[in-house]
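Can't paste images in this forum, so I'm doing it all in text. The chain is below; anyone willing to post the predicted structure tokens underneath?
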Amino acid sequence: GRLEAVTQQMGYHPQYLDSFLKTQHYLMHMDGPLPFDCRHYIAIMAAARHQCRYLVNLHVLQFLRAGGDPQWLRGLEFIPPKLRNLNEINKILAHRPWLITKEHIEKLLKISEWSWSLAELVHAVVLLAHCHALASFVFGCGCEQDEGLGGRGSLKPLSLGNQCFCEPTASNSCSQELLRINRKRSLDSCMELDSLRERMQRIHVETEGRDEMRLQDREEGEEQGAEVGVQGGTEHCSDLSAGLSPLADTDGEVTGATNLACYMQDPDFGYQDFARRDEDQTQVFRVQDYSWEDHGFSLVNRLYSDIGHLLDEKFRMVDGLQSSAMAKRQGCEPSVFKRGIWNYIHCMFGIRYDDYDYAEVNQLLERMLKVYIKTVTCYPEKTNSKMFDRFWKQFKPSEKVHVNLLILEARMQAELLYALQAITQYMI
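Text version of the structure:
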């Protein structure tokens, strides 16, 4: 259940890492509207939209440790309708957040037996946006690559020790109580994992027996006119077992999902340019009409206590990071350079600032950097191992991580703005 690679990368900016870990811990482990197992399952659904196996595997383990039903890991068909109904806004927020409307919100709140409360929905929306944006960071920094941090196309790791994903760093301002809780969790984790392995092995044996019978019935029904050779039989087995992970492998280790498709519907739905020339102009989102500072913060903080303060601190923290070297190379002030990146990301999601001259973006950001930012922001799963090294080779690893942190926070705020505006419109 650890994200050492992510914390190592963020460790280039320890103040931001502190803020990130506090928010992550609050979302996943502190009091809130949603049950703990549901929080991790929502994170699985969000990460799967971008095929982020790294995050899916992490939250699969934490889902089981929180007492989640292992059958849910077979896919969306095996989860309660209430959770499954979240799939539509998960899909929209991940790829085209400008399409979310108050009707989507109303549908979730008004379904009698499986209705969400406003507080639950806000918690879920923050979780979805958080995990979508974190998937961008994971791919952008090379954490998803099989070769790991020491391989090609990834950053040299910092020595931050064996940190838990939600564990505060040694230098941060988290309370002693939080430290105590996390240390106890670390001590308990070995015992939990042993129990988890036994549990998953037992489930695997039971499920294998059921699926063998299903496979025999299916093959008997397809004998006439079907091409079921040795290869075909293997494909059937693969299809049936796709959603049964994580399972204990031959060494007793708990492995992650082999096929993330079981955690999402409509997999072909992806990002499209906001203003396509062959379509009618979509309504632009003007920050002057609905902003985080004036509208989003107060709404989210009212419905999910204190999360607004944590998110706001994180947004401010990334804005305050030093980038003088990056800005100096471009011949501009650090604040100008960072605002260019932030506004470019928001522009790709249809969010505009009336007081900004967008001609500055082309002057500040060279083409390769723009390609990198757009890929990591809009379809991070297409990021390859070479891309990270290709953009701005003269920049230090800490500066490249800084760009990825700007992507993470700008993207998360964009999703939140659209979702919270739709909730506001529903409430009005």
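DSSP finds 18 helices and two strands in the chain. Confidence is low (pLDDT under 50) at residues 146-193, 218-257.
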